[in-house]
Design a protein that fits this description.
The protein is an alpha+beta fold. The protein is built from seven helices and six strands, in the order H-H-H-H-E-E-H-E-H-E-H-E-E. It folds into two domains: 82 residues, Orthogonal Bundle (Helix Hairpins); 119 residues, no CATH class. Helix 2 runs antiparallel to helix 3 and helix 2 packs across helix 4. The protein binds zinc ion. Zinc ion binds next to helix 4.
């Protein structure tokens, strides 16, 4: 009996194996053929990736220049403060004047910190902007009624039911902090240098670094819908990078 089964297995099993192998070859061939027929998308992806890399490089260079200027401003402000402190101790300037010099140092340092944050976020900012710029043309073709919801494979769009302004961002931040005991990961707040360059209006929007399919992203979107706050959640990433997916809170960016 066992021998018979073994024999059966040997002959049929071999045939099966050959069959499967042939199928694999056929599938592999079909897959190999696919990109050859449609060269265009591959080219577009390469172009997109190149655009992303170039824009990020350019942006980082301009930020580095800006950072240099801001750092020099800190040095100048600190020198002035030291001067003001000795003048104050000699009774030559008022306490208000001394406070002004102190504020100048604080403000100059804040600018340095802001530029540093922008530099670390540069890839995310560029990726988000690129993804949003691409979506712009598509979105224009699909008008959304107030309070409506649209789901595609690459994004989820909610039209919003109330007026929204960036001044209300704190409400979203507070909700998120209360729910997850951590800060809302805001990568882009309002209009930035990249939006100016690509002529996109991002003045009343912020980008949150959360994947729309993750638990935090899901809860955030539920909150936004419950409060009538418009959003656009992107699932897609820039090919060759991990950046791209995010939740844009506010109306979609449009060209100036
Ligand atoms: Zn955005």
């Amino acid at each position: 009996m066992i021998l018979a089964v073994l024999h059966w297995f040997r002959s049929f099993g071999l045939a099966l194996l050959v069959g499967v192998a042939l199928l694999f070859v056929a599938t592999a061939e079909a897959q190999n053929k696919k990109p050859k027929v449609t060269i265009k998308p591959a080219n577009e992806l390469a172009q997109l990736r190149e655009k992303f890399i170039n824009a990020t490089k350019e942006y980082k260079t301009s930020l580095a220049k800006l950072l240099d200027i801001y750092e020099r401003n800190v040095t100048k402000a600190e020198e002035k403060l030291a001067q003001s402190q000795s003048l104050y101790s000699e009774g030559l300037i008022s306490k208000v004047q001394l406070a002004e010099a102190e504020t100048a140092v604080t403000e100059a340092k804040a600018k340095v910190n802001e530029a540093r944050t922008q530099m670390t976020n540069a890839d995310t900012q560029i990726a988000n902007t690129l993804v949003e710029a691409q979506a712009e043309a598509q979105l224009a073709k699909m008008p959304l009624r107030k309070g409506g919801l649209l789901r595609t494979t690459s994004y989820i769009r909610y039209g919003g039911a109330a007026a929204w302004g960036l001044s209300e961002a704190w409400k979203v931040q507070r909700f998120f902090h209360d729910s997850f005991k951590m800060e809302l990961p805001v990568a882009v707040f309002g209009q930035g240098a990249i939006h100016d360059r690509w002529r996109l209006d991002h003045r009343n929007a912020m980008d949150v670094s959360l994947h729309p399919d993750g638990p935090e992203g899901q809860l955030l979107m539920n909150y936004l819908r419950a409060n009538g706050i418009p959003f656009l959640a992107f699932r897609s990433a820039i090919p060759g990078t991990a950046t791209g997916p995010h939740i844009h809170i506010g109306r979609p960016s449009h060209r100036f």
